[in-house]
Write a structure and sequence with these properties.
2 copies of one chain form a homodimer. The first copy, chain A, starts with a strand and ends in a 7-residue tail after the last helix. By secondary structure, the first copy, chain A, is mainly beta. Chain A has an 8-stranded antiparallel β-barrel with strand order 1-5-4-3-2-6-7-8.
């Protein structure tokens, strides 16, 4: 079990490109209940089953277990409904040991780009790079389980994407 | 991944008692969606996270992974709502290699007793012991995830329990 403390932002330019190589992620949600999510993710040659409870402030409990990729692919194809596919770029933050995880969504969630930063403490202050736009930590529309069911392209206003 | 093919029955006498020693199970449901369930179970000194899809006929796909007991206890206490507790008795069937799993439910699901048998094939014919009552395979009220939310004591008719 671990605690996940993170903030999420939109991204307003392409200045982050070239700062890291992407990894492709494919994920889906087996079920959700009252903000609790059960996620299956395939990333590179690995797969994970992850339970997260509802966030209290910035904090969520997270339980993550590696599972066989073959199982994950079957679960994604048969139990998860719509999937989320994205490229993730892991960019070192100015703060030592912290990383910006920029997600470039594909398919029905293109052209959404978000940037998340996982913090050691709720009170940690981070310097926002120039390519960071406004914060959407508390905006449920941008949660990945919501993006699976309600893809960005269905509800975005064009002005938000650039 | 495995296929689970099973039939479930009520039990009409105590003649099964003494045929096996019980193990105590404590389980809960992280989330359910359209018949897909995500279950956490603690049994003896072990714990498992299990995904099952909706049944087609007698058949369900099942993915089961061992997880740390400490994680399981935290998940049960914080993410699962009402739990199901029961004693399970694993009784050899007349058919070689098959077992009757008699579940004696506790707490809000007492005095319910069910008997399940897992089959190698949907067409397998089994001889029903004298203590077996009518079949409830297709009765959703007796599914464990339903019993968590809607315990037997809340909806049983007394005539069904004996």
């Amino acid at each position: 079990m671990s605690l996940e403390i993170e903030r999420k932002f939109l991204v307003k330019s392409d200045a982050w490109r070239g700062l890291a190589e992407p990894v492709r992620m494919r994920q889906g949600y087996v079920a959700t209940k009252d903000g609790t999510t059960v996620r299956v993710r395939v990333v590179g040659g690995e797969a994970f089953l992850t339970l997260k409870d509802h966030a209290v402030g910035l904090v969520r409990h997270e339980f993550e277990y590696p599972i066989p990729v073959e199982d994950a692919e079957t679960i994604l194809d048969t139990m998860c409904g719509n999937l989320v596919e994205k490229n993730r770029y892991r960019i070192p933050a100015k703060e030592a040991g912290l990383f910006w995880e920029v997600d470039e969504f594909l398919g029905a969630n293109a052209p959404l780009v978000t940037a998340e930063i996982e913090l050691p403490d709720e009170k940690t202050v981070v310097e926002l790079p120039g390519w960071i736009d406004h914060e959407v930590t508390d905006d449920h529309r941008y949660k990945n389980n919501n993006l699976a069911e309600h893809p960005f392209s269905e509800w975005c206003e064009r002005k938000e994407t650039k």
